[in-house]
Amino acid sequence: MGQKKLIKFAAIKEYENVLEYPQGMPGKWNAFFQELAKDNLNISIDDLAINQAEKNSAENATAQKPLVLELACGRGEYAVGLGRMFASQNFVGLDLKGNRIWKGASIANRDGLKNVAFVRTQIDQVTQYFSKDEVSEIWITFPDPQLRLSKAKKRLTHPKFLRLYQQFLKPGGIVHLKTDSPNLYQFTKTVIELFGLSLITSIDDLYSTAFMQSEKWDERCSIKTYYEGLNIASSNRIHYIQFKLDKELPVELDEKLKDIIAEFEVTETHESLARNGKQAME
């Protein structure tokens, strides 16, 4: 591991807005952000109160801020950008690579964004950190599209992952996908249709003038990530989907999904792009 990475890993261990594999966090995020806002430099997870708004007074229930999750957040551009836009909400970016998280966490600290935090962990462990109905929305921004059919279950919009999200997303909670991969875009649309989920918005050219001037344009989509600026896919197009996780996801349909996506044309994988020197820098 390079010296710069080691320095960044050491730094985030001292950041109060970064939690690495935190134990006992489900239900405690509202209390955590309250302590973060107080500039508490020694937040103890064990001492945080579990959110039981349904048992509290109406006044206390109102004080619970919506919690929005950015998965595979990388440098955390969306967690930070949304934190600037919406002071009345809390945002958590989740990723495994601490040297990338360091960037977003450092900016949040520098700018005094006390409604932005990060968790360093694997995506498939996400259910360990949030309780039932604790998360309002999920943003998935430029994840690895895992283009090979053998890796389809690693796609973050595969029903395998959507079932995990349903364990902590509020009923009818919204998922956003922003990607430059036509294959991942089409795959996600197929999942939505096959499982009967409610599609809110689907556009294969997010920044087209017509869409940006339409009533469906979401100002939150104007936030751009470092990866997005590199245009790795060389497509000059960004695809965007917004949908609700509002239906059961029968496991028996997974095999049918596999048969459908086997017909997709796959042109280039992230591995080949990396060999061509186009992969996003750490």
Describe the structure in your own words:
This protein has helices spanning 3-12, 29-37, 58-62, 77-85, 98-110, 159-166, 182-195, 209-212, 226-230, 254-261, 270-275, and strands spanning 18-20, 67-71, 90-95, 116-120, 135-141, 169-179, 198-203, 239-244. The chain is α/β, with parallel strands linked by helices and 282 residues long. The chain has a single domain (3-275), classed as Vaccinia Virus protein VP39 (Rossmann fold). The N and C termini lie close together (12 Å). Residues 53-59 and 268-282 have low confidence and may be disordered. The protein contains eleven helices and eight strands.
Entry summary:
32% of the residues lie in helices and 17% in strands.
Please, what is the oligomeric state?
A: single chain
Number of domains: 1
Output the CATH homologous superfamily: Vaccinia Virus protein VP39
CATH architecture group name: 3-Layer(aba) Sandwich
Which overall shape is indicated by the principal axes computed on the Cα atoms?
globular
Largest sheet: 8 strands, mixed
Can you tell me the CATH class?
A: Alpha Beta
Helix content: 25-40%
Strand content: 15-25%
Q: Got a strand count?
A: 8
Order of helices and strands: HEHHEHEHEEHEHEHHEHH
- Order of strands in the sheet with most strands: 1-4-3-2-5-6-8-7
Terminus-to-terminus distance: 12 Å
